[in-house]
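Known limitations

Files may contain more than one protein. Parsers should not assume a single record per file. Below, a two-record file is shown to illustrate correct handling: read the sequence, read the token line, then continue until end of file.
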Amino acid sequence: MVGAGFVPGMNAVIKGAALAAGELGWEVVGIRDGFEGLLHPEHYPEGGLVPLTPHLVETLDPAAGSLLGQSGRIDPFNVRQLNEDEIIEEVDQSDELLARLKEEKIEALISVVGGQGLTICYKLHAKGLNIVCVPRAIENDIASTLVSFGFNSALSFTIEMLDKARQAAQAARKVAVVEVLGVQSGWLALQAGIAAGADAVLIPEIPCDLQTVAAKLKEKMTNRRSYGLVVVAEGAKIVDNSQVPANKVPENTLKASLSPLAAGDNSTYVIQRSGLAAETVANGLQLLIAEETFPLVIGLWARGGAPTAVDRQLGLAYGAGAVQALNAGQDGVMVAFVPPAIKFVPLAEAINKVRTVPADNEFLKTARSLGICLGN
């Protein structure tokens, strides 16, 4: 089962699990669109389950889109539906889900999910489901593993786009402010910014003073180098500064009406906050350095494209590792890549945590040694 949110190369994980299970003589099926295929099989003309036969798996392209789909966003503990009064309410269908698994004679579940999905899987395991999770996160923010599936592909694409932004800024003699994914952790912004030779990288872990960034840009920008590149994670925190426009959106009550999936600031950016960080930083810097800036947003584009060689290998290893865990009698665990080994971490140690950039991280030291401003 694959959780919601597109990540390139998901077929690699599916193929790794199916091939490893086939070597043990196990029968494997895939559930379409998260739990949707199991709870609502009537939505699919060919049924909600996909038999992962040896022939199908052998011809499965690891670089193609997910065979099982990645559109379902069903939390079985909080399923939204209309009641008899045509009012939306949330109901707990976890028992129904477990019953459907039993009806289909599914003895164990391999779930490829992000942070919220790990919590759902932990709760299902507590109700008796044999389950092993594979971490996948574009932002690499899942605790207990160094590299989540999908991060390397997003990193490579982001670096490519930052290179293009820097070239455009150099030709136009402007400052490019590029927003990348990273609400709570700055791994993507930091590592991509270093690789692309950014002048400044702003991440959620380090509160940013725009006057410090402006001073660094003034120092670097000369007649011979009249351009700049600033990389900002979408969750970057800008400290209050009277000389910098707040650029805040008027507060409203929209967030309260969007439970339980609402996130972010209580503003009109609750539904789509993409671009807010880039706009805030670009406007602030333009006033402080009197140089023309232009905000760009990579955003969800980083989820597209083909997977890198690293993610293809990692996906196969994660899928096979999940089968190894089940075969060893371990369930209620997450497969974790701790170079050079694949380990199994109890779900309780992986949920309700975010893998952020620590203050003594080597990437931060590298950025500072290269003269990259981190905003403090």
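...continuing to the second record:
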Amino acid sequence: MKLREKLHRDWPAALFLAPSLLGTALFFFVPFLLVIWYAMVDNPVIMNFVGLKNFISLFQNQAYLQAAGNTLLFSIISLPLVVGLSLALALLLNGKLRARSQLRSLFLSPLLVPVASVVLVWQVLFSYNGALNTSLADFGFIPVDWLKSDSARFVIIGLYLWKNLGYNMVLFLAALNTVPVEMLDSARVDGATAWQRFRAITFKYLTPTLLFTLVISFINSFKIFRETYLLAGDYPFEVLYMLQHYMNNMFRSLDYQKLSAAAIVMALVMMAVIAILFMVESRSGRDLEES
């Protein structure tokens, strides 16, 4: 009887949720299962089950290993930079600084600019005959082929920072407004230095936002393919060859087995890193509540 009453009570909610659940199943779960199946067969037409053979051959593929190494190195370098610089900007703009509103708008402006336009500007700046080499030549420096040398990694890191600093800065500015002013004033009266106040009070309240920013920035670091593709094409200089370049080229050659295996490995790595960050966030949240 209770089950019948519960069904009678909850069926309107289930009816409203049905379209969303159906769409999620159709466009998320079914493709996800298909990707897993394609990663374990030898051919999308014949579909002979081969188990983990595609994953083994993937880790023996030099192009994949190069793409994975470049992506990992890019994330290791860019993550501390984007989080640290955006936090520093937020602390600077949260103080008594002239033209704070104008500076905030300036750092947010990259979010409004289409990626194709940004890449066009970067090409004008960093091509061999571009504006940067022309300016450096005036001071006697030898021109550098920025997009076809090891320096290309720093070009794309600069583009990533330029695109993401403003968004992270806004998140930190919002978090800084949640820090209790009374606690900061009390610590100042007790003789605590600015660094001691930041470490003992401000940083604790910034920790959840810091970890969330790390998650968002980590995901965005794996989405740098769009910029590098527009900047250097399908097969860029080796330091710019990212995981999504590899997967895009596998898709164009209709090699669904390698594409699916690479996508699953990338998803598992991202899920593992994000899970660790959320565990740290949960622990820091409990410490903040206890304090």
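Parsers that stop after the first record will miss the second one. For reference, the second record is described as follows. The first helix runs from residue 2 to 38.
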